[in-house]
Amino acid sequence: MTTGGVALDRKGWTITADSEELTTEVAPATNAIDNDTTTYWHSHWVWGAATDTPLPHYLIVDLGAAKPITGFSYLPRQTGVNGRVKAWEFYVSDDGVAWGTPVKSGAFPDGTALQTVTF
Ligand SMILES: [Ca+2]
User: What whole-number distance in Å separates Cα of residue 113 and Cα of residue 77?
Assistant: First the structure.
């Protein structure tokens, strides 16, 4: 999350996801905000099985307090081609219950480049 192009301090943030892989590989939601480009979040999957959690997936980042947000950045996983975000919607909420309509939505290209979005 950014304000005026400057990354917000992640201290105190928590994150949850509808799905995360913790068995086949260790790719929890917390990997998405750990500031480590070698770790990534991945939804649940099982090699060769049809039990993957269906799309869409979501991450919820609790900033711990109200903060002005004017954009965000997304770094796709740097190794491997699966698990990258394609179509996305960005929502905000004051209470974690009411999410309303997306602040912005779009689609990221398939690649490893850092994606930066401004509202
Ligand atoms: Ca990471």
Answer: 9
**Cα 40 to ligand 1 centroid, rounded to whole Å:** 5
CA–centroid distance, 41 to ligand 1, in Å, is 7
pLDDT tens digit string along 42-81? 999 888 776 677 899 999 999 999 999 999 999 999 998 8
Q: Are strands 104-107 and 115-118 parallel, antiparallel or unpaired?
A: unpaired
**Taking a C-beta distance cutoff of 8 angstroms, is the pair 26, 20 a contact?**
no
| Entry pTM | 0.91
CA of 74 to the centre of ligand 1 (A): 10
Tell me, in angstroms, the distance from the centre of ligand 1 to residue 77's CA: 8
**Cβ-based neighbours of 20, under 8 Å, separated by 6 or more:** 27, 28, 29, 41, 42, 43, 44
**Nearest Cα to 53, choosing from 28, 21, 89?**
21
Q: Residues 18-42: what's their mean pLDDT?
A: 95
